Amino acid sequence: MSSIQVREMHRSDWGRVRDIYKMGIEGGIATFETKVPNWEEWNKSKLTYGRLVAEIEANVAGWVALTPYSSRQVYKGVVELGIYVDPDFQGRGIGSALIESLLKICQKEGVWTMQAGIFPENIASLALHQKFGFRVVGRREEIAQLHGEWKDVLLLEKKL
Fold first, then answer.
1. How far apart are CA 132 and CA 129, in angstroms?
2. What are phi and psi of 147, to 5 degrees?
């Protein structure tokens, strides 16, 4: 089995990051997003730290990035993570490698709460987050529609 290398994401990774994000959108259980944003939109919405890619044999196989929970100063230590793995590479420990690295960065950056919103049917993502100590703190029922269908979202959090 090839080893996984986790490193900081660079602007030059955007093409592959975008492609993996598109696969997540098309899968229908990863995000309410319906189209991939351009680099400028994506870049502006994410924190400057905690942007990581995981590579196998120099191929970007997954990525993770953080979004601030709020612009209010009192929430500066609360972040939301988004993690995406190419379906061809799922089940190979990429998600775990990304979260392990991300947790170290968040601790250094003074993050005190990490959260994630996950569709209940995304069993793999739920299991991955729970493996790292995220716990379900609520269920937002019929919070939004995706392709005309009401969807629930489970809210998970981890205290650091």
1. 5
2. 55, 40
